[in-house]
Design a protein that fits this description.
The chain is of the alpha+beta class. The protein has three helices and three strands; from the N terminus they run H-H-H-E-E-E.
């Protein structure tokens, strides 16, 4: 019997993805935390991001509107839950 996601702890639902980039750490960090840079690479080829806002601080949020070549817009937003110390 499958267990619903709501019945699992946060740790059981967590996914960690690791990737090695051939670039300085500071450059990769800026690519993820600077909205202008993030908007240039986020999403599949041919898509744009007319709205891209990011607050990388603890408790911050990210909001992206990704526009497809056929003008469909996908909205996404996330708020970081904050540190527990």
């Amino acid at each position: 019997m499958a267990v619903a996601a709501r019945d699992k702890t946060l740790a059981e639902r967590e996914v960690t993805i690791t990737r090695v980039f051939d670039a300085p750490r500071a450059t990769v960090f800026r690519a993820w935390t600077d909205a202008d840079r993030l908007a240039r690479w986020w999403g599949p080829k041919g898509f744009t991001n007319p709205v891209c806002e990011i607050d990388a601080r603890v408790g911050g949020a990210i909001r992206i509107h990704m526009r497809s070549p056929d003008d469909c817009v996908s909205h996404s937003a996330s708020v970081e839950a904050g540190g527990t110390g």
